[in-house]
Design brief:
It comes from Leptolyngbya sp. NK1-12. It holds the Pfam family Uma2. This is Putative restriction endonuclease domain-containing protein. The protein has a three-stranded antiparallel beta sheet with strand order 1-2-3, with no helix packed on it. A hairpin with a 4-residue loop joins strand 1 and strand 2. With 74 residues, it is an alpha+beta fold. It has two helices and three strands, in the order αβββα. The chain starts with a helix and ends in a 5-residue tail after the last helix.
Length: 74
Amino acid sequence: MTQAPNNALKTLKMSLGVLEYWLIDPEQQMITLLELQNGSYREVGTFRGQDRITSPNFPDLTLTAQQVLTPENY
């Protein structure tokens, strides 16, 4: 039995010590931030438009969702 690609990728990220990752959905114009907490990834927040992305691991981050989703405009 093989793991679904998404689950296998999560397992790999955890084993490599990836503290957080972002799911970027260009169709929904949305970014979901997940953070490794107590051995599993938990959603920290969902960001759209002018929402300022807040990252526990990068407290000085000053990007908005729009800047990430449409970098050609910045």
